[in-house]
Specification:
single chain; binds fe (iii) ion; two-stranded antiparallel sheet; TIM Barrel; binds zinc ion
Length: 271
């Protein structure tokens, strides 16, 4: 079964997101766990949660995905910001019983090595008591972002004790921007992923086209088929045996109708 959805706003609650996803032919969605640029938590209404769960069961939805706010930076040079990262992620894991994706972090000049060990330490702490499951996102390599090399993500997971609760979300725009040619050599890129991280850790895909050419480290998402990745490559991605059963989440610059057209476009290309 194709699992596909897009990024939605949580402001009207879970049932509203479920209904919106369903109205565009999607069967899952992603949302920010908190205000993405601030960090204030969304207050969950138990009745809304129950209503959503009933709706999701009825519609045979795939599990949804919570995205951490951008203000979570476990390898900040500022102790308070690192403290917020542990607290926000632990709280989020307790609050949402779904997969949780976060950007590994920005080392802000401290260097990749120092960043990796800070991130690993934070993950160990956050996972100590929490129930949830954390996915690290593959990054474009903008500024001092960690996680644009598969080896960096593999190393973070290893140093965090190779916890079963850790996985990876592959962002197609980001990996392309990081220099992995998923348009020209998808098999080769996936092989490198498997070697550095392992396919068993891959649990979700952010399906985006890119406004910029291979290796440009810019992180500008484009609508599917309108960027440098293109529909042919996207068709190969959504049909690849390693990827096709994973949930695909669109984070393209779109309104609801635009997302609907992309969902249709992906469905039309599934073989
Ligand atoms: Fe992200
Ligand atoms: Fe993403
Ligand atoms: Zn991005």
């Amino acid at each position: 079964m194709l699992k596909i959805g897009c990024h939605l706003s949580i402001s009207k609650g879970f049932l509203a997101m479920g209904k919106l996803a369903d109205s565009i032919g999607a069967n899952t969605f992603q949302f920010f766990s908190r205000n993405p640029r601030g960090g204030a938590a969304f207050k969950r209404d138990p009745q809304d949660t129950q209503n959503y769960q009933d709706f999701a069961a009825l519609k045979n939805f795939a599990p949804c995905l919570a995205h951490a706010p951008y203000t979570v930076n476990p390898c900040s040079a500022d102790l308070r910001i690192r403290g917020f990262a542990v607290k926000a992620v632990s709280d989020d894991l307790d609050r949402y019983d779904c997969m949780y994706v976060m950007h590994p972090g920005n080392h802000v000049g401290q260097g990749t090595e120092a960043g990796i060990s800070l991130i690993a330490g934070m993950l160990e702490k956050a996972l100590e008591h929490a129930q949830g499951f954390i996915l690290l996102e593959t990054m474009a390599g903008k500024g001092t972002e960690i996680g644009s090399r598969f080896e960096e993500l593999g190393e973070i997971i290893k140093r965090a004790g190779s916890s079963e609760k850790l996985g990876v979300c592959l962002d197609t725009c980001h990996v392309f921007d990081a220099g992995y040619d998923i348009a020209g050599d998808l098999d080769g890129v996936l092989e490198r992923f498997d070697k550095a991280i392992g396919f068993e850790r891959l649990h979700a895909v952010h399906l985006n086209d890119s406004k910029n050419a291979l290796g440009s480290h810019k992180d500008r998402h484009e609508k599917l088929g309108e960027g440098f990745i293109g529909w042919d490559a996207i068709a190969r991605i959504v049909n690849h045996p390693v990827l096709r059963e994973l949930p695909f989440f669109l984070e393209t610059p779109n309104d609801t109708e635009g997302y609907g057209r992309e969902v249709e476009g992906v469905k039309a290309r599934r073989s």
